[in-house]
Write a structure and sequence with these properties.
Elements lengths: L3 H25 L6 H8 L6 E4 L2 E8 L17 E5 L10 H7 L4 E6 L16 H15 L4 E6 L1 H12 L4 E7 L30 H8 L11 H11 L4 H11 L6 H4 L6 E6 L10 H7 L4 E5 L6 H4 L1 H12 L1
Parallel strand pairs: 3-4, 3-5, 5-6, 6-7, 7-8
Antiparallel strand pairs: 1-2, 2-4
């Protein structure tokens, strides 16, 4: 008889604990945002959604045209430039660069599949080889035989790999804190082991947690504004985007970069923040050694995103290089 009281209390505490856990889960639960909502915020024109082979891509194409009907390649109006964003990012990371470069170049920016407003790859294939196929198909679709290529972080790895494999299609190469050398969690020839806890992001990703993860990319806290945080958070909540990110991580297999880098023929500029906490500027020495004639520009107190954090400084360096 006397044991009923403590048992009832235990049951009560269990019910309260489960209720609290349920409420916490509901509070933290982060569903996808409707595509219509995202397009209303981040799609400049319906024409920017472009079918390229099996992929639907979000493509911004600005600046003077690179060719006109009836003109030969020698008569093109403006050189073309393609910009590739990094992991978890979108074409908006290039906003200031694109505005500055459009005065002299046809500037093509894309959201890679499963990023920004580009839906996930229909085959759920995010290997680098697939990215090279996509880039080649995009250039063909746009009628671009040769371009200058700009890539940041993961996009930098795709860019330098493409430049090594297809040198006849590249005029100049700009690598912004490029990925490619082995680092913590990545070994050559082996896929990354994605922690099971990371899979929780498919269901739980409140904006404060997103902001905490973004902080590492910026050396200057004021660069991570509420508007920037909202943009990154909104676009990572696009339908299928979080699973695509996990799939891309699991499918990434790095190869020793040296042999490919030594095949690059295009003049190459390395752009880096000296306070990059994600891919250290010390990696630049390996690229400088392996890419013939490459050179480096870097700035103190700038993190992993010089195109955002030191936009005008880095833009000037790129404009001078492309000129």
């Amino acid at each position: 008889m006397h044991a009923r009281g403590p048992r009832r209390m235990k049951r009560l505490w269990l019910v309260l604990a489960l209720t609290a856990l349920t409420l916490l889960s509901l509070w933290l639960w982060t569903p996808d945002l409707p595509r219509a909502t995202l397009e209303s915020r981040y799609l400049a024109s319906p024409a920017d959604l472009r079918q390229v082979g099996p992929w639907q891509l979000h493509v911004r194409d600005s600046g003077p045209p690179s060719s006109a009907p009836g003109k030969s390649d020698a008569q093109t109006d403006a050189p073309a430039l393609v910009l590739l964003h990094g992991f978890g990012s979108s074409l908006q990371t290039w906003d200031i660069w694109a505005q500055g470069l459009a005065a002299s170049h046809r500037v093509v920016r894309i959201d890679l599949p499963g990023s920004g407003l580009s839906p996930p790859d229909p085959a759920h294939d995010y290997r680098d080889e697939r990215s090279l196929q996509l880039l080649s198909a995009l250039l063909d679709d746009l009628g671009l035989k040769r371009v200058s290529l700009v890539g940041h972080s993961m996009g930098g790895r795709i860019a330098w790999t493409f430049a090594a494999r297809f040198p006849e299609r590249i005029n100049k190469l700009v690598l912004v804190a490029p990925d490619g050398y082995a680092s913590f969690g990545f070994e050559y020839g082996q896929p990354m082991e994605v922690p099971a806890t990371l899979g929780l992001m498919r269901h739980v990703l409140p904006k404060p947690l997103m902001r905490m993860n973004l902080k590492a990319a910026y050396a200057q806290p004021e660069s991570l504004s509420d508007a920037v945080t909202t943009r990154y958070h909104d676009l990572i909540l696009a339908p299928g985007a979080r699973q695509a990110m996990l799939d891309r991580l699991a499918q990434t297999v790095l190869q020793e970069p040296g042999p490919l880098l030594r095949q690059i023929q295009a003049p190459t500029l390395l752009v880096w923040g000296e306070a990059d906490a994600m891919i250290p500027v010390s990696n630049a020495s390996d690229y400088l050694q392996d890419i013939t004639g490459s050179r480096l520009v870097s700035w103190p107190q700038v993190g992993h995103l010089p195109q955002e954090e030191a936009a005008q400084l880095s833009l000037k360096a790129v404009v001078d290089f492309l000129r």
